[in-house]
Design goal:
This protein has 139 residues and is an alpha/beta fold. 29% of the residues lie in helices and 34% in strands. The relative contact order is 0.18. The mean pLDDT is 89.
Length: 139
């Protein structure tokens, strides 16, 4: 049978290991989106259609992955104190919304409506519109 002192040392050891792992993950540097390789290249309309058809299947294919999404700009918004959001048309009332990466330098943050662009970012899934975060423009 283990003594109380040995159990306490074991618990303290496990807690220290867990804390070390948590600190390492918390301080992990962010991926550089400008140089990140896109896992998938897709049109905004096809991405929205995949989510509109079957969200669970689309999540398995796209959620958390780096996507290069091409589409026509519908509008650009800049919430006060927040990052620029570029909305891409999908042929539906819903959109693909690409939030520009706050950690990257951007050549521009103005995108005229009707312009065809390709933005690369992390897919956050469907929330009425398909959401991408940490986006950068591809030339």
């Amino acid at each position: 049978m283990m003594s109380g002192k040995r159990i306490l040392m074991l618990v303290v050891g496990v807690v220290l290991i867990g804390a070390s792992i948590a600190i390492a993950l918390w301080n992990k540097p962010h991926e550089n989106m400008s140089s990140a390789k896109a896992d998938v290249t897709i049109e905004a309309s096809a991405l929205f259609q995949a989510y509109n058809t079957d969200e669970k299947v689309a999540d398995k294919q796209y959620l958390g992955k780096t996507l290069a999404v091409s589409g026509v700009v519908k509008e650009v918004s800049k919430p006060e104190g927040g990052p620029v959001k570029v909305s891409l048309e999908t042929g539906d009332e819903f959109l693909v919304i690409c939030e520009l990466d706050a950690l990257s330098k951007h050549a521009r943050q103005e995108f005229p409506a009707g312009e065809k662009v390709t933005l690369k970012g992390k897919c956050d899934g469907l929330n009425l519109d398909v959401q991408l975060s940490r986006c950068v423009e591809l030339k």
